[in-house]
Amino acid sequence: MVHFVGAGPGATDLITLRGLKYLSEADVIIYAGSLVNKELLSYAKAGAEIYNSAHMTLEEVIDVVKKAEKENKNTVRLHTGDPSIYGAIREQIDILKLLDINFDVVPGVSSFCGAAASLNAEYTLPNVSQSVIITRMEGRTPVPERESIRSFAAHKSTMILFLSSGLAEELSKELIAGGYEKDTPVAVVYKATWHDEKIFGCTVESLPQTMKDNNITKTALILVGNFLGNDYERSKLYSPKFTHEFREGIE
Questions:
Q1: Is residue 182 in a domain?
Q2: Long-range interactions of 36-44: CB distance < 8 A, separation 24+
Q3: Are 132 and 92 in the same domain?
Q4: How far apart are CA 73 and CA 2, in angstroms?
Q5: Residue 100's domain is classified under what CATH number?
Q6: The CATH number of the domain where 161 resides is what?
Q7: Among candidate residues 107, 116, 92, the one with its CA nearest the CA of residue 7
């Protein structure tokens, strides 16, 4: 059996109870060493085989899994955050299906949720933004043209950018060209929820200089939008005048 486990955004106590159970029982652990907090490996049982996938190809990962299956061992594939977001699990799952190897997926706390918690922020504010776009700048891995930063920026909704820290100059230009005002607030959250987390506030226009001044080139989320401001409407759900299934509003 292979368990794809979301390790959470960084802090070791943000892994789920289910994920922790599987991790502590695993005979074989393959973890994303470039991103997963290595302190999580302290939960591994004595004698567990541990592999760092940062040094492995997909084929090498599958070879480890196949060997574990032949030896009747359980494997945990430990991914950062939530495996469904930039986790590259689909290509692994499809091979496991072909090999008739059982698997499941354990969700995790994504770093974009960890970043919001660190900022004490809410991404969806009434009359500000009711949509969250999770995306990335095009780098060595291409992005479909219909999903360009410029096209998404036209919505002026909340945008969360993964894997884009080293492309701040181009990102800033694309955000402005797409429709964000130059003074739209931005938060850069480096290593959200880790002990060495850092947070920097700036604007879309000043983003490149902020990244340069603080030497941020990787392992950071870039959060864009007016949800970072102070203007919003109160939620109708808790308004004394709002009637819903559980409460009668007061006229």
A1: yes
A2: 36/7, 36/78, 36/79, 36/80, 37/7, 37/10, 37/11, 37/12, 37/194, 39/12, 40/7, 40/12, 40/15, 40/78, 42/12
A3: no
A4: 9
A5: 3.40.1010.10
A6: 3.30.950.10
A7: 107
Same-domain status, 27 and 98? yes
Tell which of 71, 106, 141 closes a domain: 106
Confirm if 199 and 188 have CB atoms less than 8 A apart: yes
Number of independent structural domains in the chain: 2
235 in a structural domain: no
* Domain assignment present for 244: no
Predicted confidence (pLDDT) per residue in 150-160, tens digit: 999 999 999 99
CA distances for 159 relative to 1, 192, 194, 241, angstroms: 37, 16, 22, 32
Structure tokens at 60: 């090498």
Domain presence at residue 68: yes
Q: What is the pTM of this model?
A: 0.91
- Residue 13 structure tokens: 């106590």
How many whole angstroms from its chain centre is CA 9?
7
The dihedral over CA atoms of 232, 233, 234, 235, expressed in degrees to the nearest 10, equals -100
Structural domain harbouring 67? 2-106
| Token pair of 114 as six digits | 């960890």
Q: What count of residues does the chain have?
A: 251
With a cut of 50, which residues of the chain have pLDDT below it? none
- What is residue 249's predicted lDDT score, i.e. its pLDDT? 78
Single residue among 58, 78, 106 that ends a domain in this structure: 106
* pLDDT score for 237: 77
